[in-house]
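Q: Convert this sequence to structure tokens.
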Amino acid sequence: MAAVKDQGASADLATHLKDSGPTNPRGIPQAPFVNSVADYVSSRAEVESTLRSFQEMISKYQFMEVNTQRRAEGLRDKLPEMKGTLDVVNFLRLQKSGSEDDGAGDEEASDEVEATFSLNDTLYAKAKVNPQELDEVYLWLGANVMVAYPMDEAQTMLKGKLESATKKLQECEEDLEFLREQVTTLEVATARVYNWDVMQKRLEKAQGKGGNEEEGDSNQAS
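A:
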């Protein structure tokens, strides 16, 4: 559900900023850089709506940042387990290969390996495994699904998943940095528009006061 909301927010932001310029490799729009306030505000009447628009964009960037952070944390949690599983498969393949090279008749070739494996987060069990007898391994795919794979195929699949997860984590970290930069850009833009509004108020006040003084001097002269 969070991913769907995140995509919706990204789509809204893309629509809102479709004329603003480039995007990052994942399609997140770049926030407009306010170099000149006059490009966005032509009168004080437009200040409030402009500031509200900037604040909406900041909120959407921050929403995407939260969801991207969650995805990154999920990947960081999964990567150690994926690496550990791949290490086990590599170890079993190495042991099996070594046993085959030593020859089936060698007594040491049939030595069993004692392994400790996890039943759940706090419960472990020990098992004795004969690498020479192993032709396949069983891998959890999630949703209470376990599938048997030949060891070569399991190794290939695990390598691919590990590389994919590592790449996704890198992309999440790049997106997080990009999103924070866009929020900073919009905060600067908000400050510039707000300061411009303050200056305009002062100018209008000064002009109004000057006009009253001139009118008073004119009346005294008459």
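The beta strands are 113-118, 124-129, 136-142, 145-150.
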